[in-house]
Write a structure and sequence with these properties.
The protein has ten helices and ten strands. A hairpin with a 7-residue loop joins strand 5 and strand 6. Helix 1 runs antiparallel to helix 2, helix 1 packs parallel to helix 10 and helix 4 runs parallel beside helix 5. Bound molecules: nicotinamide-adenine-dinucleotide.
Length: about 350
Protein backbone atom coordinates (compact mmCIF):
# COMPACT_ATOMS: atom_id res chain seq x y z
CA UNK A 1 0.00 0.00 0.00
CA UNK A 2 1.19 3.48 -0.79
CA UNK A 3 0.88 5.82 2.15
CA UNK A 4 -0.91 9.05 1.07
CA UNK A 5 -1.34 11.70 3.78
CA UNK A 6 -3.25 14.93 3.08
CA UNK A 7 -2.91 14.20 -0.63
CA UNK A 8 0.88 13.90 -0.41
CA UNK A 9 3.39 11.05 -0.54
CA UNK A 10 6.81 11.27 1.10
CA UNK A 11 9.85 10.84 -1.10
CA UNK A 12 11.11 7.89 0.98
CA UNK A 13 7.73 6.08 0.87
CA UNK A 14 7.49 6.58 -2.89
CA UNK A 15 11.04 5.33 -3.48
CA UNK A 16 10.39 2.27 -1.28
CA UNK A 17 7.07 1.51 -3.03
CA UNK A 18 8.61 1.75 -6.50
CA UNK A 19 11.59 -0.36 -5.45
CA UNK A 20 9.33 -3.11 -4.12
CA UNK A 21 7.60 -3.32 -7.50
CA UNK A 22 10.90 -3.44 -9.40
CA UNK A 23 12.39 -6.09 -7.12
CA UNK A 24 9.28 -8.22 -7.59
CA UNK A 25 9.70 -7.74 -11.34
CA UNK A 26 13.16 -9.29 -11.03
CA UNK A 27 15.47 -6.27 -11.13
CA UNK A 28 18.66 -5.98 -9.09
CA UNK A 29 18.46 -3.74 -6.03
CA UNK A 30 21.04 -1.27 -7.38
CA UNK A 31 19.17 -0.85 -10.68
CA UNK A 32 15.83 -0.50 -8.89
CA UNK A 33 17.39 2.21 -6.70
CA UNK A 34 18.70 4.11 -9.73
CA UNK A 35 15.35 3.91 -11.53
CA UNK A 36 13.39 4.95 -8.44
CA UNK A 37 15.70 7.93 -7.95
CA UNK A 38 15.21 9.08 -11.58
CA UNK A 39 11.40 8.77 -11.50
CA UNK A 40 10.82 10.11 -7.97
CA UNK A 41 13.16 13.08 -8.58
CA UNK A 42 11.07 13.96 -11.66
CA UNK A 43 7.95 13.89 -9.46
CA UNK A 44 9.61 16.21 -6.91
CA UNK A 45 10.16 18.68 -9.76
CA UNK A 46 6.47 18.46 -10.59
CA UNK A 47 7.04 16.60 -13.88
CA UNK A 48 4.24 14.18 -12.97
CA UNK A 49 3.62 13.02 -16.55
CA UNK A 50 7.10 11.48 -16.71
CA UNK A 51 7.85 10.48 -13.11
CA UNK A 52 6.62 7.40 -11.25
CA UNK A 53 3.51 7.34 -13.46
CA UNK A 54 5.79 5.72 -16.04
CA UNK A 55 6.82 2.81 -13.82
CA UNK A 56 3.72 0.66 -14.27
CA UNK A 57 3.91 0.72 -18.10
CA UNK A 58 7.69 0.21 -17.95
CA UNK A 59 7.22 -2.92 -15.80
CA UNK A 60 4.53 -4.18 -18.20
CA UNK A 61 7.06 -3.59 -21.03
CA UNK A 62 9.57 -5.64 -18.98
CA UNK A 63 7.11 -8.42 -18.14
CA UNK A 64 6.17 -8.73 -21.83
CA UNK A 65 9.79 -9.03 -22.96
CA UNK A 66 10.52 -5.53 -24.31
CA UNK A 67 13.01 -4.95 -21.46
CA UNK A 68 15.39 -7.32 -19.67
CA UNK A 69 15.40 -6.88 -15.85
CA UNK A 70 18.95 -8.20 -15.46
CA UNK A 71 20.66 -6.67 -18.50
CA UNK A 72 23.77 -4.55 -18.04
CA UNK A 73 24.34 -1.62 -20.41
CA UNK A 74 27.79 -1.93 -21.96
CA UNK A 75 30.30 0.35 -23.69
CA UNK A 76 30.80 -1.18 -27.13
CA UNK A 77 33.26 1.31 -28.62
CA UNK A 78 34.89 4.46 -27.32
CA UNK A 79 37.51 7.14 -27.78
CA UNK A 80 38.94 9.71 -25.39
CA UNK A 81 35.85 11.91 -25.66
CA UNK A 82 33.04 9.63 -26.83
CA UNK A 83 31.40 6.27 -26.25
CA UNK A 84 28.72 4.08 -27.81
CA UNK A 85 26.68 2.18 -25.25
CA UNK A 86 24.57 -0.89 -26.00
CA UNK A 87 21.68 -0.65 -23.56
CA UNK A 88 20.89 -4.37 -24.03
CA UNK A 89 17.28 -3.40 -23.19
CA UNK A 90 18.02 -2.82 -19.54
CA UNK A 91 15.55 -0.63 -17.64
CA UNK A 92 16.14 2.61 -19.67
CA UNK A 93 16.94 4.94 -16.74
CA UNK A 94 19.72 2.48 -15.78
CA UNK A 95 21.28 2.73 -19.26
CA UNK A 96 20.77 6.50 -19.37
CA UNK A 97 22.45 7.10 -15.99
CA UNK A 98 25.35 4.83 -16.93
CA UNK A 99 25.78 6.62 -20.27
CA UNK A 100 25.59 10.11 -18.73
CA UNK A 101 28.21 9.10 -16.13
CA UNK A 102 30.38 7.86 -19.00
CA UNK A 103 30.04 11.23 -20.77
CA UNK A 104 30.92 13.03 -17.51
CA UNK A 105 34.05 10.89 -17.10
CA UNK A 106 35.06 11.60 -20.69
CA UNK A 107 34.56 15.33 -20.12
CA UNK A 108 36.74 15.13 -17.00
CA UNK A 109 39.55 13.77 -19.18
CA UNK A 110 39.00 15.63 -22.46
CA UNK A 111 36.91 18.68 -21.59
CA UNK A 112 33.99 17.34 -23.62
CA UNK A 113 32.22 14.03 -23.69
CA UNK A 114 29.56 12.43 -25.87
CA UNK A 115 27.82 9.20 -25.06
CA UNK A 116 25.18 7.59 -27.25
CA UNK A 117 22.91 4.69 -26.32
CA UNK A 118 21.15 2.25 -28.64
CA UNK A 119 18.97 -0.79 -27.82
CA UNK A 120 17.00 1.20 -25.28
CA UNK A 121 13.42 2.31 -24.70
CA UNK A 122 11.50 4.99 -22.81
CA UNK A 123 13.78 6.80 -20.30
CA UNK A 124 11.11 9.10 -18.78
CA UNK A 125 11.92 12.78 -18.25
CA UNK A 126 15.23 13.90 -19.73
CA UNK A 127 16.02 16.33 -16.90
CA UNK A 128 17.56 13.98 -14.32
CA UNK A 129 20.37 12.93 -16.65
CA UNK A 130 21.50 16.46 -17.54
CA UNK A 131 21.39 17.35 -13.83
CA UNK A 132 24.02 14.67 -13.12
CA UNK A 133 26.48 16.76 -15.15
CA UNK A 134 25.53 20.03 -13.41
CA UNK A 135 26.06 18.31 -10.04
CA UNK A 136 29.64 17.63 -11.23
CA UNK A 137 30.12 21.32 -12.14
CA UNK A 138 29.69 20.60 -15.82
CA UNK A 139 27.24 21.60 -18.54
CA UNK A 140 25.02 18.67 -19.45
CA UNK A 141 22.65 17.97 -22.32
CA UNK A 142 20.41 14.94 -22.56
CA UNK A 143 17.99 13.92 -25.30
CA UNK A 144 16.18 10.95 -26.76
CA UNK A 145 14.33 10.08 -29.90
CA UNK A 146 10.79 8.81 -29.50
CA UNK A 147 8.29 6.96 -31.70
CA UNK A 148 6.78 9.33 -34.33
CA UNK A 149 3.79 11.22 -32.94
CA UNK A 150 4.54 14.69 -34.32
CA UNK A 151 4.12 16.17 -37.77
CA UNK A 152 6.49 18.62 -39.49
CA UNK A 153 5.65 21.62 -41.69
CA UNK A 154 4.23 20.48 -45.00
CA UNK A 155 3.65 16.87 -43.94
CA UNK A 156 0.40 14.97 -43.59
CA UNK A 157 0.75 12.54 -40.71
CA UNK A 158 3.36 11.66 -38.10
CA UNK A 159 7.03 12.12 -38.94
CA UNK A 160 9.16 12.55 -35.78
CA UNK A 161 8.78 11.93 -32.06
CA UNK A 162 8.09 14.70 -29.57
CA UNK A 163 11.83 14.28 -28.92
CA UNK A 164 12.67 15.90 -25.58
CA UNK A 165 15.86 17.81 -24.83
CA UNK A 166 17.31 19.06 -21.57
CA UNK A 167 20.22 21.19 -20.50
CA UNK A 168 21.50 21.81 -16.99
CA UNK A 169 24.18 24.38 -16.19
CA UNK A 170 25.80 25.03 -12.81
CA UNK A 171 25.80 28.45 -11.19
CA UNK A 172 27.48 29.79 -8.05
CA UNK A 173 24.78 31.08 -5.72
CA UNK A 174 21.61 29.91 -7.47
CA UNK A 175 20.52 26.41 -8.40
CA UNK A 176 21.47 25.06 -11.84
CA UNK A 177 19.75 26.63 -14.81
CA UNK A 178 17.74 23.73 -16.12
CA UNK A 179 15.45 23.41 -19.15
CA UNK A 180 13.61 20.16 -19.79
CA UNK A 181 11.05 20.08 -22.58
CA UNK A 182 9.50 18.16 -25.43
CA UNK A 183 9.89 19.65 -28.93
CA UNK A 184 6.14 19.57 -29.60
CA UNK A 185 4.11 22.72 -28.76
CA UNK A 186 2.85 20.97 -25.62
CA UNK A 187 3.12 17.49 -24.21
CA UNK A 188 0.54 15.09 -25.69
CA UNK A 189 -0.83 14.53 -22.16
CA UNK A 190 -2.27 18.09 -22.29
CA UNK A 191 -4.27 17.18 -25.41
CA UNK A 192 -5.63 14.05 -23.73
CA UNK A 193 -6.54 16.10 -20.64
CA UNK A 194 -8.53 18.58 -22.80
CA UNK A 195 -10.30 15.66 -24.48
CA UNK A 196 -11.32 14.25 -21.10
CA UNK A 197 -12.70 17.65 -20.10
CA UNK A 198 -14.42 18.08 -23.48
CA UNK A 199 -12.55 21.36 -24.10
CA UNK A 200 -11.21 22.73 -27.40
CA UNK A 201 -7.46 23.27 -27.74
CA UNK A 202 -5.47 26.06 -29.43
CA UNK A 203 -4.87 25.69 -33.18
CA UNK A 204 -1.13 25.30 -32.69
CA UNK A 205 -1.22 22.04 -30.70
CA UNK A 206 -2.25 19.33 -33.18
CA UNK A 207 -3.15 18.61 -36.80
CA UNK A 208 -5.90 16.21 -37.87
CA UNK A 209 -5.40 13.17 -40.14
CA UNK A 210 -5.38 15.46 -43.21
CA UNK A 211 -2.56 17.57 -41.79
CA UNK A 212 -4.85 20.53 -41.00
CA UNK A 213 -4.59 22.35 -37.62
CA UNK A 214 -7.47 21.27 -35.39
CA UNK A 215 -8.97 22.55 -32.13
CA UNK A 216 -10.64 19.16 -31.48
CA UNK A 217 -8.38 17.13 -29.14
CA UNK A 218 -10.06 13.83 -30.14
CA UNK A 219 -8.48 14.18 -33.62
CA UNK A 220 -5.06 13.26 -32.20
CA UNK A 221 -5.88 9.58 -31.74
CA UNK A 222 -7.87 9.44 -34.98
CA UNK A 223 -4.70 9.68 -37.08
CA UNK A 224 -3.76 13.24 -36.14
CA UNK A 225 -0.35 14.38 -34.91
CA UNK A 226 1.25 16.81 -32.49
CA UNK A 227 2.60 20.05 -33.97
CA UNK A 228 6.25 20.97 -33.40
CA UNK A 229 6.89 23.92 -31.09
CA UNK A 230 7.47 27.17 -32.98
CA UNK A 231 6.76 25.58 -36.38
CA UNK A 232 9.81 24.84 -38.50
CA UNK A 233 12.15 25.85 -35.68
CA UNK A 234 10.84 23.11 -33.38
CA UNK A 235 10.98 20.71 -36.32
CA UNK A 236 14.64 21.58 -36.79
CA UNK A 237 15.48 20.95 -33.13
CA UNK A 238 13.50 17.67 -33.05
CA UNK A 239 15.41 16.61 -36.17
CA UNK A 240 18.76 17.38 -34.52
CA UNK A 241 17.73 15.15 -31.60
CA UNK A 242 16.68 12.40 -34.04
CA UNK A 243 20.14 12.62 -35.63
CA UNK A 244 22.19 12.71 -32.40
CA UNK A 245 20.11 10.15 -30.46
CA UNK A 246 18.95 7.96 -33.35
CA UNK A 247 21.17 8.17 -36.45
CA UNK A 248 24.53 8.76 -34.72
CA UNK A 249 24.06 6.15 -31.97
CA UNK A 250 23.03 3.30 -34.30
CA UNK A 251 19.52 3.20 -32.80
CA UNK A 252 16.30 3.04 -34.82
CA UNK A 253 14.95 6.32 -36.15
CA UNK A 254 11.62 7.81 -37.27
CA UNK A 255 9.12 5.11 -38.34
CA UNK A 256 11.43 2.27 -37.23
CA UNK A 257 10.96 3.32 -33.58
CA UNK A 258 8.02 1.32 -32.25
CA UNK A 259 5.61 2.59 -29.61
CA UNK A 260 6.88 1.12 -26.33
CA UNK A 261 3.58 1.56 -24.55
CA UNK A 262 1.67 -0.39 -27.25
CA UNK A 263 4.30 -2.78 -28.62
CA UNK A 264 5.14 -3.85 -25.08
CA UNK A 265 6.92 -7.06 -26.15
CA UNK A 266 9.02 -5.37 -28.84
CA UNK A 267 12.70 -4.47 -28.68
CA UNK A 268 12.06 -0.95 -29.87
CA UNK A 269 15.67 0.29 -30.19
CA UNK A 270 15.16 3.87 -29.08
CA UNK A 271 18.36 5.93 -28.78
CA UNK A 272 19.59 8.52 -26.27
CA UNK A 273 22.39 11.08 -26.51
CA UNK A 274 24.31 12.78 -23.70
CA UNK A 275 26.74 15.65 -24.18
CA UNK A 276 28.90 17.09 -21.41
CA UNK A 277 31.16 20.14 -21.46
CA UNK A 278 33.58 20.96 -18.67
CA UNK A 279 33.68 24.78 -18.36
CA UNK A 280 37.10 24.47 -16.69
CA UNK A 281 38.72 23.80 -20.06
CA UNK A 282 38.08 27.45 -20.85
CA UNK A 283 38.17 29.27 -17.52
CA UNK A 284 38.45 28.58 -13.78
CA UNK A 285 35.17 27.09 -12.57
CA UNK A 286 34.65 29.86 -10.02
CA UNK A 287 34.89 32.46 -12.80
CA UNK A 288 32.36 30.56 -14.87
CA UNK A 289 29.95 30.29 -11.94
CA UNK A 290 30.35 33.99 -11.11
CA UNK A 291 29.53 34.83 -14.73
CA UNK A 292 26.48 32.54 -14.58
CA UNK A 293 25.36 34.30 -11.39
CA UNK A 294 25.70 37.63 -13.13
CA UNK A 295 23.62 36.36 -16.07
CA UNK A 296 20.89 35.12 -13.71
CA UNK A 297 20.96 38.43 -11.80
CA UNK A 298 20.55 40.48 -14.98
CA UNK A 299 17.60 38.39 -16.14
CA UNK A 300 15.93 38.42 -12.72
CA UNK A 301 16.34 42.19 -12.46
CA UNK A 302 14.79 42.94 -15.83
CA UNK A 303 11.61 45.00 -15.30
CA UNK A 304 8.51 42.82 -15.45
CA UNK A 305 5.72 43.26 -17.99
CA UNK A 306 2.32 44.50 -16.77
CA UNK A 307 0.58 41.74 -14.82
CA UNK A 308 3.73 39.61 -14.40
CA UNK A 309 4.97 38.99 -10.86
CA UNK A 310 8.49 37.80 -11.65
CA UNK A 311 10.80 36.40 -14.29
CA UNK A 312 11.72 32.75 -13.92
CA UNK A 313 14.94 31.12 -15.01
CA UNK A 314 14.35 27.73 -16.66
CA UNK A 315 14.24 25.19 -13.84
CA UNK A 316 13.36 27.67 -11.11
CA UNK A 317 9.75 26.48 -10.82
CA UNK A 318 11.01 22.91 -10.58
CA UNK A 319 13.48 23.76 -7.79
CA UNK A 320 10.77 25.48 -5.79
CA UNK A 321 8.44 22.51 -6.19
CA UNK A 322 11.23 20.19 -5.15
CA UNK A 323 11.93 22.21 -1.99
CA UNK A 324 8.26 21.83 -1.02
CA UNK A 325 8.17 18.15 -1.94
CA UNK A 326 11.21 17.35 0.20
CA UNK A 327 9.72 19.24 3.15
CA UNK A 328 6.06 18.24 3.00
CA UNK A 329 5.73 15.38 0.49
CA UNK A 330 4.89 15.17 -3.20
CA UNK A 331 1.34 16.24 -4.18
CA UNK A 332 0.92 13.48 -6.77
CA UNK A 333 -2.09 14.09 -9.03
CA UNK A 334 -4.93 11.57 -8.94
CA UNK A 335 -4.00 10.01 -12.31
CA UNK A 336 -0.50 9.21 -11.00
CA UNK A 337 -1.90 7.72 -7.78
CA UNK A 338 -4.24 5.58 -9.88
CA UNK A 339 -1.31 4.23 -11.94
CA UNK A 340 0.66 3.53 -8.75
CA UNK A 341 -2.27 1.70 -7.15
CA UNK A 342 -2.76 -0.38 -10.31
CA UNK A 343 0.96 -1.19 -10.21
CA UNK A 344 0.45 -2.28 -6.58
CA UNK A 345 -2.29 -4.67 -7.77
CA UNK A 346 -0.06 -6.00 -10.57
CA UNK A 347 2.79 -6.83 -8.19
CA UNK A 348 0.85 -7.52 -5.02
CA UNK A 349 2.56 -4.71 -3.12
N1 LIG B 1 10.90 10.35 -22.87
C1 LIG B 1 9.94 10.79 -23.65
O1 LIG B 1 9.41 10.07 -24.48
C2 LIG B 1 9.44 12.21 -23.51
C3 LIG B 1 8.81 12.81 -24.61
C4 LIG B 1 8.37 14.11 -24.45
C5 LIG B 1 8.53 14.79 -23.25
N2 LIG B 1 9.17 14.15 -22.22
C6 LIG B 1 9.35 14.84 -20.94
O2 LIG B 1 8.14 15.50 -20.63
C7 LIG B 1 8.42 16.55 -19.70
C8 LIG B 1 7.53 17.74 -19.98
O3 LIG B 1 7.85 18.32 -21.23
P1 LIG B 1 7.02 19.62 -21.72
O4 LIG B 1 7.50 20.02 -23.05
O5 LIG B 1 5.55 19.37 -21.51
O6 LIG B 1 7.51 20.67 -20.64
P2 LIG B 1 6.94 22.15 -20.37
O7 LIG B 1 6.28 22.70 -21.59
O8 LIG B 1 6.16 22.09 -19.10
O9 LIG B 1 8.29 22.98 -20.16
C9 LIG B 1 9.05 22.74 -19.02
C10 LIG B 1 10.33 23.55 -19.03
O10 LIG B 1 10.05 24.92 -19.29
C11 LIG B 1 10.56 25.71 -18.22
N3 LIG B 1 9.63 26.84 -18.03
C12 LIG B 1 8.29 26.77 -17.93
N4 LIG B 1 7.77 28.01 -17.73
C13 LIG B 1 8.82 28.87 -17.73
C14 LIG B 1 8.95 30.28 -17.58
N5 LIG B 1 7.89 31.06 -17.42
N6 LIG B 1 10.18 30.83 -17.61
C15 LIG B 1 11.28 30.03 -17.79
N7 LIG B 1 11.21 28.69 -17.94
C16 LIG B 1 10.01 28.12 -17.92
C17 LIG B 1 10.57 24.82 -17.02
O11 LIG B 1 11.51 25.25 -16.06
C18 LIG B 1 10.97 23.48 -17.66
O12 LIG B 1 12.37 23.40 -17.83
C19 LIG B 1 9.92 16.77 -19.79
O13 LIG B 1 10.49 16.24 -18.61
C20 LIG B 1 10.38 15.93 -20.98
O14 LIG B 1 11.70 15.40 -20.83
C21 LIG B 1 9.63 12.89 -22.33
Amino acid sequence: MLNVTNGKVSVSDLVAYCMRAMLKAGMREEDAQTTADVLVTSDTWGVYTHGTKQLRPLLIHMRDGGLDPLANPQIISEGSSWAHVDGHYAMPPVSAVMAMRTAINKAHQSGIGFSGVYHSSHFGAAGYYAMLAAQSDMIGLAMTNVDPFMTVPGAKGRVLGTNPITYAIPTGKARPVFLDMATSTVAASKVFAAETLGKPIPETWIVDRDGKPSTDPSELLKGGAMQPMAGYKGYGIALLIEILAGVLTGAAFTTDVKTWIIDTDARINQGHAFIVLDPQIMMPIDDFKARMDELVRRIHETPTAPGAQRIYMPGEMEWERRDDALKTGIPLPEDVLLYLRDMGDDWDL
